[in-house]
Design a protein that fits this description.
It is a single chain. By secondary structure, the protein is of the alpha/beta class. It is built from 18 helices and 32 strands. The longest helix is centred in the middle third of the chain and has 20 residues, at about 295-310. The chain is globular. The protein binds S-adenosylmethionine. S-adenosylmethionine binds next to helix 3 and strand 5.
Length: about 600
Amino acid sequence: MLSWRDGQPFSARFGDVYFSDDSGLEEKCHVFLRGNNLPERFSALRCGDSFAIGEVGFGTGLNFLCAWRLFSETSPPSSSLDFFSIEKYPLSESELADALALWPALRPYADELCTKWHRRVPGWNRWCFDGGRVRLTLVIGDVMDALTEVRGGIDAWFLDGFSPALNPEMWTPEVFESVVRASRPGASFSTYTCAGYVRRGLERAGFRVGRCPGFGRKREMLQGELPGLPPPRPIVTSAIVIGGGVAGCAAAAALAMRGVPVILIEGEPTLAAAASGNPRGILHIRLSAGMGALQRFLLAAYGHVLALLDERLPVDGESRAECGELQLATSEPELRRIERLAALDWPAHLMHRVDAAEASGFAGVKLEHGGLRFPAGCWVSPPRMCAALAASPLVTQHVGHRAESLTSVSGGWRVSGQDGGGRAWAYDAQVVVVCAGYQARSFVQLSHLPLTPVRGQITAIPETAYSERLQTIVCAKGYITPSARGSHLLGATHGFNDEAVDLRVPDHAENISKLAGMSAALAESLSVDAVAMGKLGGRASVRASLPGAMPLVGESLPGLYVSLGHGTHGLVTAGLSGELIAASVFRQLLPLPKTVVDELATVRGL
Ligand code: SAM
């Protein structure tokens, strides 16, 4: 918890201040920005290049804001900045806002950070600022766990733990070695301390270290560099994305944010025509207590997509409704999962335990079970989400263009196919991203992938006087959304190896039968007889799944990337997958821990 001493933020846990009481802003600029020569290095960036800063100790985010401001003032317009930082004890929203209110000159930057802050999740957070020119990767966790997982290469380090005597775990030889391993050749560091063992530790790890004048009352500070010159990052000027669902639109958006013109190819006459075409879809993550790669990915993807939607999709009840979600403990195994999960002490803005009475209060209808509440849970219109993601002027949409083959050509790939009138077309690009769901197997290069089609049907059921009271998404074996435009959506069935998209009465019956496990009152109020069941609306589509539930995201052959097998999680996982692909294409800092990146790129079940 943040304390205040003499008008300055102070950590009672460590007994130290977050910055010097002379002038925090000037101190940060002196020690970290000038200490790493950033004004000169930012202005020397080539168009399209990127620069990566790594920090240990995010604290109030002041260093981040100072670096962002300097970058926006000094760098060429088409360059970008990655800022990677680690924080074990994140401030609350009000603490962050109070601490940053000290710096009126940084207000526009601080406001943007505070807006994203309520989307933070434990683990890796990737947020984009300034139209994507500045990317923050904030790891909420311990310094060592995070440092060993960095991939992509850091150019300059801000070593900003509390004073070494009070916060020794931030200044260990292992930390310094991990800093060096995560660096690019020629990377620099600076820090306000000039403690002898810090200097010796950094030297032993590989830095050439020097002393220079410190700030204010501090006589000296340390700065240094690694030997070598960083290799240039690739310049990518053309990309093709195959598939106009949420995975393809998100990949196109992330590439376009990096200034690449993208051709987005969709075989159907509109975007979001297949698995992303339901009128409403829920942002749902089912976590377990073990923090394996899938859990870490889902959490990071959830925080990322919530922040992405904040920028791109209004909460207007048509595009998106932030109504929260309840996951009910309707069976013994579910109760055990929820109890194990709840025992991990999650931030309340992400999820919290509720009993049946509290759950009923949030839902507005009577529920027999408690469970977990996700306050940020929401439904979105997937077609609107796709349209919003693909709306960049750098994205050219070619709908009604069926891609049929991929050929390796000099400097990249050729995609060939036919349009709706049977006319042949072909486009070349340096990079191709295939996001075509289970149909990706039709390309020879991807025919080995164990993608399974899974038919899913949702049911639209007219609201009743009672069900209209439902305020939140409720999930147990199935789910129900609050009423919008007079009906609830219930979902969804799973028909493995079934590619048909006809509406089926038994599937409606299955969706409706799951209501009884959530709320007897809702089930009774929404019960329909066999005749009415045949008239219910809904939609069936085919998702793609892979063994193990982890999607497949990464480079399959040089220059050929895939974002596939998102299954029922696509609305959550597509955004961060697109960001991962775009960062990989440019050899930038990756938005996920390296073990998760490796898992995402692993084909299972062959
Ligand atoms: N750079 C910050 C700013 O601009 O406000 C100030 C950082 S403050 C001096 C040091 C930070 O390191 C604190 O926020 C503290 O919670 C964090 N920290 C301390 N021990 C840590 C650990 N083992 N892992 C990660 N973060 C840690």
